[in-house]
Amino acid sequence: MNDWKIFHGNREPHQGISTLPNAPSWRQFKRQLDVNEKVLKAHWQDILNLVKEDSREYQRGKSFRVFSPPPGSDQVNPESPGKKGKIYQAYQELIDGVNAAIYLRRPLLVTGRPGSGKTSLAYAIAYELQLGPVLAWSITTRTILQNGLYNYDAIARLQNLQLLKLKQDLGQEAPQQLEENIGQYLQLGPVGTAFLPSYQPRVLLIDEIDKSDINLPNDLLNLFEEGGYSIPELERLQTQEVTVRTADFGLTTEIQGGQVQCNKFPIVVMTSNGERDFPAPFLRRCLRVRMPEPHDYEFLSQVVNAHFAKELGEKHWQEAQGTINQLIQDFVTKQQGKEVATDQLLSTIYLFSRQVQPDAMDQESLKQLLLKRLDSSVDQ
């Protein structure tokens, strides 16, 4: 039987997204705009050219690997009553959740503790499926949906209009001239860019959605259900086609009649630290998974290996194994019942694995500093 999974979480890039079948009938959108496949393909190549292999985002996706148990261990048995078996099952559920969301064209809501890898999952998806830069939208208590869709600088446009009036008599053609230039005052945000027609689906990260105000989850419902949105500032113009900037650096797109409609529903990853509950209508439209807590020694060893083995070089990596293994074991012990994050472990290993290391006294002090628990205001 062929593997149904498109995303495997193994850090091996491939073109599997091209085998994705059509969306279910209930996820095919009524409103469809005409798209030019040649134009979309050319624009897609421009998007892929934005990926820089030395960028932080690229390395983040490349280094994140969903837990892979060694052959022959009890971790390969989801029914295993042991702790390792449960860890494996949790990561299998995560992989299944990602793939189900891709097939069903549904947003994926990923809940987990800080530092568990929720955000990195989006970058891993983009890296493995070769879907270009992640479109990331970070949420605060003041965020509204329009912030993610687009930004229209009406003040700058008004100032330019006043300047033109001062310099010359505009005459009859002036309003038309201003209409034609409106695109330079409008830029699509990460959400707005993700729902543009595209040769392949984009990866949209909505980070820490649990920090939003009470209205944002419900405001997203129509976008998720209809797969598109309108820009009123462009709808009212006589000009049917307007060139605007996108969230991709240096790239533009054409907006027809103020309407944006996706032809490939983006892979939407929404992260939550579990600080609030969401309304039932919102949850009904999402697939929900929990990010497993990375407190298993073998899993953490894989994470550390992905981040440091190549950077340190084979010789120094082997020399540092004793120190690194002990730090991982200390971290696993400290994790029991306490809130500590994987990036705290990575920071500690970074300092302790240099060729010039802190002395023993400084090491103990640094461990206390870098591995403080996150669930208390008291320094412990």
TrEMBL record:
GO molecular function, one term: ATP binding
Region (Disordered): 63-83
Domain of life of the source: Bacteria
Pfam family for this entry, one: AAA
SUPFAM superfamilies: P-loop containing nucleoside triphosphate hydrolases (SSF52540)
Domain AAA+ ATPase, first and last residues per copy: 104-295
Alphabetized InterPro entries for the sequence: AAA+_ATPase, ATPase_AAA_core, P-loop_NTPase
Name this polypeptide is given: AAA family ATPase
Lineage: Bacteria, Bacillati, Cyanobacteriota, Cyanophyceae, Coleofasciculales
